[in-house]
Amino acid sequence: MHADSTVNETSPFAGLPAAVGSGNGVLAEERSGLGIARIVARKGQGARLAEIFRSRFGMELPHGPRRVSHEDVGIAGMGPETWLAMCDGAGNGFAESLRPALGDCASVSDQSDAYAILRLTGPRVRAALAKLTPIDIHPRTFPVNSVAQTLCGYVNVMLWRLEDTTRGDPVFELWVAGSLAASLHHAISHSAAEFGFVRQTP
Fold it and tell me: Angle at Cα 68 formed by Cα 67 and Cα 72, nearest 5°?
């Protein structure tokens, strides 16, 4: 195990090892600058909200724990009439931009600073995650665009499956409360140590 340069002083992963073990079996990338908004439909407004997303964003609101995306915007079902929307590079302004678009049919809250996020890929990522999470992440049971609230080691996380890489490696994202970033990093880096864990740093 060896340490490399830190991400930056504001990163929740600052000061943590950028590599554990040897090899490139699991590759991690911190997701930063993401605009994240929690959307809750107001009573009786679910159908209207769905129509707004259909017409303005070209997406069907997902029902159940799955994610849909169009261009740089994604949205995932998190519970009854509740969704988490995200936009690459939009930061805290994303939630503010949604409020006039959604009008009085939904409550919108900014969650952009609430999460620490690691995107994981590599040829052994599924093997590393299988040691940490109690859910079955085989592609037949956890296909692309699946979402689950589960454990990673002893840490509560949101687990997302994204499109595979061009090489065919699976891609997952782990979302955790910012205060638990170090615990998440420790869990995944040590689980992946036998395959080689590398976290990209800007």
Answer: 115
In terms of Cβ atoms closer than 10 Å to its own Cβ (0-12, 13-18, 19+), residue 89 is exposed
φ and ψ at residue 82, rounded to 5 degrees: -135, 135
CA dihedral for 184, 185, 186, 189, sign (positive or negative) = positive
Q: What is the torsion angle, in degrees rounded to the nearest 10, for the CA atoms of residue 36, residue 71, residue 168 and residue 201?
A: -50
Instruction: Give the CA distances from residue 171 to residues 6, 42, 102, 160, 163, in Å, rounded to whole numbers and listed in that order.
Output: 23, 34, 31, 8, 6
pLDDT band at 129 (very low <50, low <70, confident <90, very high): very high
Q: For the chain, give the longest Cα–Cα distance.
A: 55
Tokens representing 128?
A: 């590393």
Domains of the chain by start residue, with CATH: 19-32+114-200 (3.30.1360.120), 35-110 (3.30.70.1520)
CA distance 148 to 156: 11
The pLDDT tens digits for 48-87 are 999 999 998 889 999 889 999 888 899 999 989 999 999 9
0.85 exceeded by pTM = yes
| Length of the chain, in residues | 202
Helix (H, G, I), strand (E, B), or coil: what is residue 56?
Answer: helix
**DSSP state letter for 7:** S
The two three-digit tokens of residue 57, written as one number: 């964003």
Cβ-contact 197, 1 below 8 angstroms:
no
